[in-house]
């Protein structure tokens, strides 16, 4: 299955949660007017899902690109890959056999070129993970609405961007420092909106939507994850458990029919497996034993309502 299709399915379970409805409306307006939008916020807050949801709402074909350090201009524009041999055997007159052989380089169109040419909505996820020299190709696309065809051996040196083409970027601010410097020139050309805290009600609905678990169980699990976050000393750390942790616990509970009860060994172990590592990453070594005991107490005290 194509990466874009998988992400589209993710968008299907995503409902523009009440606190994101306004963000959705504003984003659609900016995109319609020709401004790219950018969602930034901690891991698991729903940036990618919201980007896909908005892209779908535009009712234009969608293209998905995941930022990474190996992404190159060739991947975005296209490249020639090897040679193709075409053989034409003409047997029209039986006694005369004509064979024509043509050798040509085969062209593989890049994702950005296709999106720009056909007017797609492009979701460029975690774009700050790509190298700045790769991302620079977006400057003329966003500013002059042209895509230069560097090294593409095409007749034209650039193509005009389709009027329907638009981009939704996502990034995690924690990664700016670790990966590549945020690209100010690029950021200056997009409208950046921060997604901070997810509303508790939204988190519960998200868990129910994704796992089909009963609502009362989802509430207990989300409550527990909220308590775990409070145990983390560095609240801004992207290592603390996100919505994904609640989804994982709920998924296992639903699949293996586990009781939502901290006195049940399997459920207790599941909660520890999912939360201890991210929590441990967010605290100093000296604190670890104390926090682990606190976490065990929180796990033990979980009871279904
Ligand atoms: N409102 C929602 N309804 C249902 N599921 C949701 C919602 N928001 C997020 N999710 C689910 O939560 C998980 C995390 O969401 P998503 O991948 O969009 O987060 P993210 O902010 O892009 O995270 P990262 O920065 O780690 O990529 C996904 O499995 C997604 O389907």
Provide a compact summary of the structure.
The chain has about 300 residues and is an alpha/beta fold.
Explain what this protein looks like in three dimensions:
This protein is 47% helix and 18% strand. It is of the alpha/beta class. It has 3 domains: 3-76 and 109-194, Rossmann fold (3-Layer(aba) Sandwich); 79-108, no CATH class; 200-300. The strands form 3 sheets. Strands 2-5-8-1-9 form a 5-stranded parallel beta sheet, with helices on both faces. A two-stranded antiparallel sheet has the order 3-4. The chain has a two-stranded antiparallel ribbon with strand order 6-7. A hairpin with a 7-residue loop joins strand 3 and strand 4. The radius of gyration is 25 Å and the shape is elongated. Residues 10, 13-15, 17, 43-49, 170, 172, 202, 206, 209-210, 243-244, 247 line the site of adenosine-5'-triphosphate. Adenosine-5'-triphosphate binds at residues 10, 13-15, 17, 43-49, 170, 172, 202, 206, 209-210, 243-244, 247. One of its GO terms (biological process) is gas vesicle organization. This is Gas vesicle protein GvpN. Belongs to the CbbQ/NirQ/NorQ/GpvN family. Its main location: cytoplasm. It is found in: Cytoplasm; Gas vesicle.
